[in-house]
Amino acid sequence: MKIIVFASLILSNLFFAQTTIPDDYKKVPEILDNTELLYPFIVPGKEYSYWRVLTNDTDPEKAVIYESQMPDFMTINEPLPEKGFFQQCIGNRCFSYILACKKERSVYFSNEQQLRDFIGTVDNLPEAILLIQTYGFKIDTSNKLSGSYKIEDQYIYLYASKSKGCPEMKESYFIKINRRTGKLESKNNGVYFKAENCNQNVSQ
């Protein structure tokens, strides 16, 4: 079994070594590594008079990540949902969700599919990065093979990353996004980083 795993890693690395980034791809700006900075760039798929992104923090002021302009006369008081998207832990400030106002009624978006529905058409790079995150991919700007992009009229192309195991192992993926439908296609390019032990937190 160990021989099979070792051989598969060698083949994966050989395949990865042959992967090159085309010259017309740009490096994803490092600031877009931060998920919370992506939300202001969302252009919702439907018209909402107001929307905001929150965490499940029990402090209302600390819970708000992003808030669109809200009419002075409007107030929304809603209980916290039990679940959300990008679940990181169990407890306080462990997931995010969107609360929107449509035709004077509040609407929740509290899982990955609902976030995709809220985004709708993929208008820009930050929306594309949010979309791939709902499928478990990440942008790692420390390496071109995990943090590069190209935008065309019909598609957005990304090189992104997925991590697994302990010690941590990162794999490069080539992703093609249909901007109109949000449909995603991906191809594994192989391992580009492996930590030496479980406590190591190093990117390259």
Describe the fold and architecture.
The protein has helices spanning 2-17, 60-63, 112-119, 125-133; strands spanning 26-27, 50-55, 64-67, 96-102, 105-109, 148-151, 155-164, 169-178, 184-194. By secondary structure, it is of the alpha+beta class. The strands form two sheets. The protein has a five-stranded antiparallel sheet. The longest helix is centred in the first third of the chain and has 16 residues, at 2-17. It is globular. Residues 1-17 have low confidence and may be disordered.
Helix content: 10-25%
Rg over CA atoms: 19 Å
**Which spans of ≥5 residues are poorly predicted at pLDDT below 50?**
1-17
Secondary-structure-derived class: alpha+beta
Elements, N to C (H/E):
HEEHEEEHHEEEE
Note the gap between the termini: 29 Å
Biggest sheet architecture = 5 strands, antiparallel
Annotation field: number of helices: 4
Annotation, overall tally of beta strands: 9
The overall average pLDDT, rounded, is 86
